[in-house]
Backbone:
């Protein structure tokens, strides 16, 4: 629209009032009080344990000096509930280095194996 002025494309007051009444009626009027929705879970299929946690428990039971063995990998798979030896070995090696680095940073000797690393799981 060459040469159009704002008056040409803005509806007149009567047209605007008609349009506003139509839209307001279509919206439904009274909404009522707002209600809170139920909390949504943050994760889908959240597990009670993780492979990394199982690796830490297994290293605690066997001790840091034992290194990472095939039996420990099988234990991590069993505790996690799904067999994936490659992933379990990765988590065990990571936990091994985390423990080593933590105690080296503190200047403490690495403790021997613990018979009761995960007492809460043993009770259940």
Residues:
């Amino acid at each position: 629209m060459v040469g159009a002025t704002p008056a040409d494309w803005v509806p007149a007051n009567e047209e605007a009032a008609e349009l506003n009444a139509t839209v307001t009626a279509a919206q439904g009027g009274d909404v009522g009080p707002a209600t809170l929705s139920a909390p949504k879970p943050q994760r889908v299929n959240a597990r009670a344990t993780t492979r990394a946690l199982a690796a830490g428990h297994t290293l605690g039971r066997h001790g840091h000096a034992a290194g990472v063995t095939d039996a420990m990998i099988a234990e991590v798979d069993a505790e996690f509930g799904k067999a994936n030896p490659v992933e379990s070995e990765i988590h065990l090696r990571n936990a091994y280095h985390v423990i080593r680095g933590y105690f080296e940073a503190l200047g403490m000797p690495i403790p021997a194996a613990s018979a009761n690393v995960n007492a809460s799981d043993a009770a259940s």
Q: What stands out?
A: DSSP finds six helices and no strands in the chain.
